[in-house]
Amino acid sequence: MEDKGARRRAPMTFAEVAAEESVQPSDNGVRPDPDQTKVEGRYLSAEEIFAIDDIQQKEIWVPEWRTNIILQTLTGAERDKYFASVQYTDKRGRQLVDSDSSNAKLLVLSARTPDGGHLFTIHQVKRLQMKSAAVITRLANIAGEMNGFGATEDEDRERRTALE
């Protein structure tokens, strides 16, 4: 039973709101994950949204390096920095991707230390490119998937529909 004298921290997260609301089980009898539940009529303020930790991490075993690597989703600012570093406009005005170091640059921004700092620096891109292409590509593909890069319009629509 909740102590009426206890102070609730503010603002509430979406998960707390969903858990507090009477979320009805789906037709199959499985209660939806509160983090993925749509709560009708509930809208968060900007400050409530800013208070939500939506950055995700994934620990990946890299057998070639005999270590785990932590990959983290990019912030909006990091994503913009990444795209600015790999995109260019050709003479015809088309936006193209310079794939010369795109995988290494994505790893520089995504790979983290256990305390959350960047594992690699931008000055280490060239050295990172000297490592196994298979490893760099595999890690960059995982980081890309985590950040929604390369998702087709249908996959993106399917992902948004699943969250509703």
Layout of secondary structure:
Blueprint: H1 14-20, H2 46-51, E1 57-62, E2 67-72, H3 76-86, E3 87-89, E4 95-97, H4 102-110, E5 111-112, H5 125-129, H6 133-146, H7 153-163
Antiparallel strand pairs: 1-2, 2-5, 3-4
Helix pairs in contact: 3-4, 4-6
The helix/strand series, from N terminus to C terminus, equals HHEEHEEHEHHH
Ranges where pLDDT stays below 50 over 5 or more residues in a row are: 1-31
The first-level CATH class of the largest domain is given as Alpha Beta
Query: Radius of gyration over alpha carbons?
Result: 20 Å
Strand content: 5-15%
Class based on secondary structure composition and strand pairing? alpha+beta
What does the largest sheet look like?
Answer: 3 strands, antiparallel
CATH architecture of the largest domain: 2-Layer Sandwich
Range of helix content: 25-40%
Secondary structure tally: strands = 5
CATH-derived topology of the largest domain: rbstp2171
Strand order of the largest sheet: 1-2-5
Q: What oligomeric state do these chains adopt?
A: single chain
Mean pLDDT: 78
Q: Span from first to last CA?
A: 31 Å
- Which descriptor suits the 3D outline? globular
Helical segment count: 7
